[in-house]
Amino acid sequence: xxxxxxxxxxxxxxxxxxxxxxxxxxxxxxxxxxxxxxxxxxxxxxxxxxxxxxxxxxxxxxxxxxxxxxxxxxxxxxxxxxxxxxxxxxxxxxxxxxxxxxxxxxxxxxxxxxxxxxxxxxxxxxxxxxxxxxxxxxxxxxxxxxxxxxxxxxxxxxxxxxxxxxxxxxxxxxxxxxxxxxxxxxxxxxxxxxxxxxxxxxxxxxxxxxxxxxxxxxxxxxxxxxxxxxxxxxxxxxxxxxxxxxxxxxxxxxxxxxxxxxxxxxxxxxxxxxxxxxxxxxxxxxxxxxxxxxxxxxxxxxxxxxxxxxxxxxxxxxxxxxxxxxxxxxxxxxxxxxxxxxxxxxxxxxxxxxxxxxxxxxxxxxxxxxxxxxxxxxxxxxxxxxxxxxxxxxxxxxxxxxxxxxxxxxxxxxxxxxxxxxxxxxxxxxxxxxxxxxxxxxxxxxxxxxxxxxxxxxxxxxxxxxxxxxxxxxxxxxxxxxxxxxxxxxxxxxxxxxxxxxxxxxxxxx
Length: 510
What we know:
Radius of gyration: 24 Å
Strand order of the largest sheet: 2-1-3-4-5-6-7
CATH class of the largest domain: Alpha Beta
Number of domains: 2
Number of strands: 15
Low-confidence stretches: 1-6, 497-510
Structural class: alpha/beta
CATH architecture of the largest domain: Alpha-Beta Horseshoe
Mean pLDDT: 87
CATH superfamily of the largest domain: tm_1862 like domain
Distance between the termini: 35 Å
């Protein structure tokens, strides 16, 4: 972890513990930190997911005394963790200004800004706001009193004035196009980068899925140009030489022109890495991703294309505003089955108003995809959870008796009570009388997809009958009871996760 080169300003950015180890990149604070470093502002990043509790406390104790501004990223499910962190920070350094950003403060900025331990909130892209605020805090002891006009000029910022009223600035524009500085990550994470690297080639999304906060916040797609992206990739290749690069944005294939230009740049610069990227089913048309372009993608080592397919029900796809049809999903699966590119398809289940027959339609579509392409990857079906933002959330609030929390502290109480269903224990009111199917569908598919030869090992053979039963259920479309899936999930949670997963993560399985 880098130390500041000068005592002031120094921004400490923290990502909460998402219970997922070294896997994720902390994209929010990494983007902000990269921009700050380019602006000659000292910055350090701490991702609590990368550390156990003792190591996190040690990093916090080392860096907190030097900080002039603390920035914390926050999803709604992080509210309890974030409040616990702020309580510790304010006890140690009550004068240290705290800035909250990320999805939850962006969706509920005024409510978040009213919490007494939160000094500032940034709505939307936080790079410019964080840099401007850090400089202002370095120059003024109390910006709201010493330089309120400068505070009011910071894009996307919310703060409480001297009377305690929340003030809100106009939103920020498109985020600055800055290369990600991976040296801000800890050495333990950097050691993994030669094997697998993630790159953010663009941000936002121009579609309006009913469960996504991008549509609510108006975060339209803004992608790096092919030239800027290729320059950034070339720098990464020279430093880390990754075997695989995952272009992590919401929709890498949004711009056909950029994709064609990237193919040209890949060849011109002699790149050799394999790469994964996100896509949409409706892009597989004669005018865009056709057999000719697919061969071009194969020739430059495209390894995997990821899709949010969500449902096998036409009605649910319309409800979710996916802008795709079941026929298009099947067309993608058939097309990729004849190529060297792996199709990765994620699904969602248990949304408000979805019926049992529609759950079964999704599982039937998964079975059909696997019939066409046995090596296709299936994510989920993931259990729908109530996060603020989007039309589905509005329906939950308006028609299903969910009382929206009225404060940041109440959101933390939702986390403590596991309202979000992080361990899938919630029987939501809108589930159509069959809570086990949407809650267990992902484990059912996982069992059915497990290669039987892997289960012949003496330590794994106990799972073999459950895998065979899961295959039979998926083949016959028979989902009554699910006693076998519940028992297999219990065995996994009790015996497997207890041995192989940290205790803090084991409770999330099942």
